Amino acid sequence: MLSFENDYSEGCHPQVLEALVKTNMEPLPGYGNDYYSEEAKKKIRKVLHNDDTDIYFLTGGTQTNETIITSLLKPYEGVIAAETGHIAVHEAGAIENHGHKVLTIPSYEGKIKASDLEAYVATFYQDGNHEHMVFPGMVYISFSTEYGTIYSLEELKDIAKICKQYKMHFFIDGARLGYGLMAKENDVDITDLSALCDVFTIGGTKVGALCGEAVVFTHHNAPWHFIPIIKQHGALLAKGRLTGIQFNALFTDDLYFKISAHAITQANKLKKLLQDKGYQFYLDSPTNQQFVIVDNEKYASLLKNVRVSYMEKYDETHTVIRFCTSWATTDEQLLELEKLL
Amino acid sequence: MLSFENDYSEGCHPQVLEALVKTNMEPLPGYGNDYYSEEAKKKIRKVLHNDDTDIYFLTGGTQTNETIITSLLKPYEGVIAAETGHIAVHEAGAIENHGHKVLTIPSYEGKIKASDLEAYVATFYQDGNHEHMVFPGMVYISFSTEYGTIYSLEELKDIAKICKQYKMHFFIDGARLGYGLMAKENDVDITDLSALCDVFTIGGTKVGALCGEAVVFTHHNAPWHFIPIIKQHGALLAKGRLTGIQFNALFTDDLYFKISAHAITQANKLKKLLQDKGYQFYLDSPTNQQFVIVDNEKYASLLKNVRVSYMEKYDETHTVIRFCTSWATTDEQLLELEKLL
Amino acid sequence: MLSFENDYSEGCHPQVLEALVKTNMEPLPGYGNDYYSEEAKKKIRKVLHNDDTDIYFLTGGTQTNETIITSLLKPYEGVIAAETGHIAVHEAGAIENHGHKVLTIPSYEGKIKASDLEAYVATFYQDGNHEHMVFPGMVYISFSTEYGTIYSLEELKDIAKICKQYKMHFFIDGARLGYGLMAKENDVDITDLSALCDVFTIGGTKVGALCGEAVVFTHHNAPWHFIPIIKQHGALLAKGRLTGIQFNALFTDDLYFKISAHAITQANKLKKLLQDKGYQFYLDSPTNQQFVIVDNEKYASLLKNVRVSYMEKYDETHTVIRFCTSWATTDEQLLELEKLL
Amino acid sequence: MLSFENDYSEGCHPQVLEALVKTNMEPLPGYGNDYYSEEAKKKIRKVLHNDDTDIYFLTGGTQTNETIITSLLKPYEGVIAAETGHIAVHEAGAIENHGHKVLTIPSYEGKIKASDLEAYVATFYQDGNHEHMVFPGMVYISFSTEYGTIYSLEELKDIAKICKQYKMHFFIDGARLGYGLMAKENDVDITDLSALCDVFTIGGTKVGALCGEAVVFTHHNAPWHFIPIIKQHGALLAKGRLTGIQFNALFTDDLYFKISAHAITQANKLKKLLQDKGYQFYLDSPTNQQFVIVDNEKYASLLKNVRVSYMEKYDETHTVIRFCTSWATTDEQLLELEKLL
């Protein structure tokens, strides 16, 4: 069945698969100490123009988020996120399960505003009794967000400034980093990230890999003995090669960026299709996730032929649904979809 | 200095102290297995008209809340509370530190509404993807609330009904239970609680004891092996007598209720004083906590002679402050205060 | 370089890789709700002759162990293991990090004795004060063990009996299950496991897969809402297909057992090589891990041409090292090794 | 009934009680910010000849141990203790419940040996693979120990030296500090502790207080924001006065040391009584806990008239039991006991 359900429906990009096939029988050291993991790190550092990074490869998004967040926070600290942030809503309480509170501030189509952030933190420190409250120790945002939106460079700088002022870590969840960076409206370059934030991830799972998220600490600020911490969180692959080989392939000849750009091209075609068919957009997303409001009958009829994601109830007779493109979306699939819309 | 800062400024009620003095040299078994702890439990059961309770004495409010909540919840569950709830704001993240998320819904002067609760839970279960979200496993309210307000019996029944329907534990934090029950406007009897909720606490720390909260599981529903769990949370006193003797005194001859009623009498006098002096009330509290809005100069001048609590900034030139009465508040103190207002 | 370092040096078995390649572009539902995951479960159930199993696929061993153990245990319980058990020594404290104590009993070449287990538990319950101690809630063993040894069916039955008697979960860590089952000396059939234990794992990472451990609850006894729990532990793959497809391949035409048997055949050849060269064995292992005591000069010289594992210092001049075979070990590699021994 | 069961059977020392009574109606700031808590800290600093201490008052032993240990350790670290250590055996897994492993080494009548400690740590760091193991981050001992024994100054210096060499925190659990310091055989002065260890406790619960342990960080090394951490562990008393007033009384006119010395005097009388009656000692304890081996019939007959503690089964017909003296033990009680022995 045709699927626009999400950006993790297929396996991996053919070039990534080829790399796995080609290296399959090479015996390699375990736990990420292999040649390909090292190569992948070198290539990422080169792309970032930053040799001061500590880079690790973990397996999935929730795992990566909770390992980063809970290992950087002090016991009395929490992490600030949009009330719609992935860590706040869709990780089954993984952050709390590992001991820390998610402190939420308003979400504007998935984004937070620097002014809200500043107000939150300023109020916290002005309060006479804050030793009984959870200290804001980190700011978490996603790029692109859960609603497909992106921050401008200016917006990121404003958030980064507040983080520095109040000594909070700034963490950018890049589960869909490629799709954010390749958006036409985007003015953030991947080389900007090191100066902006303390740690970010480069998502593989949704951008061409079978699994894998690269964790980038931007200024040799990985927690001390991060390997035992990763192990302790159940996040250390014996066959570290699995993520190393994939990221090495993704960062060879700009594959990561090319396939992200492809998803954006297909998303723009999809957007036009939806517009032409008169669909009402829930918000204006510049990336690979497109949200539309459909009446419930239309939704039911669509589901017979194409997989899409349920987002939320809009009103008694309408539903917000999501169409996703990805590195794997073909023109043929879009043509087929057109007939069904 | 005169203090209306809170309801835990003095030691304990003289009759409680006397009980401690009188029993001081008796050798008693440790960890709550003493005669007085047993007596106290019997008296509480009698007051509740409920022999099916499991009763334990812990030391402080945050400790009690986190031990109850985290031992009743399943790993995938969180606890619903008002966004102003003590566990949500003022326990330094103790619930999260022990692995669980506090799920917040709107607060109306410290209270939640059954309709909001129902909407929250109904939405949760209607959502297609709730296996990635934190399940609502418990509802937490405080009685009286952090803002001195109380729920009507009807309101409690409505909340209890939703809890039963969705199989959520219902927990009433009674850190200030006595002050809530003795309010003139209150229509809830302590014997109502067993039918309404699964577990509640009878606060000692703020109502006449040096320390101590009684935990009442209303239908033999204490977690299996609760003693090791209490121990594990660092909440098991070697000298369990300390809480046992105090609660035994508090539940002898209705002392707990009498001293709570005294605090309410004094609160009503205080309220009148404040009204007469033209103070603007932040909200209408029927219990021992009174909240007023003062301009910042007045606030500064008051602080020279009387301790009150800072609550929050009201606007650039005004502050919300709190005056508390307690079992210990005397007419002399009120007279002295009158001169300073 | 030649490697006998471990059983996770290569990628995956060619037939597993082929399955990944063949299915790569099929869009499939996420989080394990795909056709191949379902097929794999069916095949495993068939092999086990047990339709009452709950089966889940996780990614790695430590992750799997801590998720199973900490979700089955009550808060006041710990897990009994050999003092050499993987969870006791080599998981960086993952069990404790998730809240539970590992209670150790003596190890005999990696195995525990039923008599020690019984003595431990009997003593615990006879002790007057055990409410201040960690309750034994589970028994953990590995099959084959960290030292390559295996339990006889009789030994497993004895352990199982004690577990039933004292109401402890019995968990068998099968990270190397295939290698244990295919040992010549083994008298345990995979169909025996359901009657013996409450939960066991079928290791993929060390037996032909890129990653993946199948978790088998033997009598519909998976923790309620196990998916959110897995998610919370960072162990839920968005592309659940990755483990599903691999286990489906491994359980097609008995591949899992055939490749395990191959590793044993190669291990026996290796054993003979080592014996012929006069190596001193540290213990007699019937499976794919072979432990020998070498003098430190020999060790240093070996390391120039072949990767082996350091186990422990034997004495001032000798070291215990490990040679592993696996599904991937070829006759050519053994011939090459022969020249270096 | 006569009780030699433990050192926490009575309430508190009369002078401590008097202090509570005298201050009872003074309104004081909460959470330890009161005059008496400050006075108590000053007096303790004076006794220690150390103004660089950070001092906090917590309520009970397990709570204090887990709060100190888990707030000082890094996530990948565990705490080394004797296999008989309180934290290893009798705290219901509180350390593990808060995320950390207790690493045990042999116990010699409750004490650890510096040579065992050094061997343990040296082996750990020599092991090639220690990134998958729990790092030794702290050494925990008790003084006096759970078996009433004490360390010599030399022994403590040896342990301290290893701690410094391997950068491990050194924590001395002083639940029975007074009884250890006042033993005739003791050559450690309380002023020695600051130079020896990083943190120690001064037990109140077993030495004259109703509850309370003073935590002394010896060189301004309390964890940053320790108050929120204490709060988060449920260990912050609203009425901090309760512990402050008691410790102020205990450290006025050397009361703490005088009453500890009294317990030792009584213990020596008790010891002589037991010797005279031909009791077999389990070990030679110089402090307030005395362990003897009795046949089971004798044990049963004793229990009819005097409470003592069961320690462990000695053999089929004998049991190890404990007699305790304390600050409260009178000559009359010893006379009465003599008749029953």
From TrEMBL, chains A, B, C, D:
Its cofactor is pyridoxal 5'-phosphate. Pfam families: Beta_elim_lyase (PF01212). It comes from Sharpea porci. Belongs to the threonine aldolase family. Keywords: Aminotransferase, Pyridoxal phosphate, Transferase. Residues 30-273 form the Aromatic amino acid beta-eliminating lyase/threonine aldolase domain. The lineage of its organism: Bacteria, Bacillati, Bacillota, Erysipelotrichia, Erysipelotrichales. GO terms for biological process: amino acid metabolic process. This is Aminotransferase class V-fold PLP-dependent enzyme. GO terms for molecular function: lyase activity; transaminase activity.
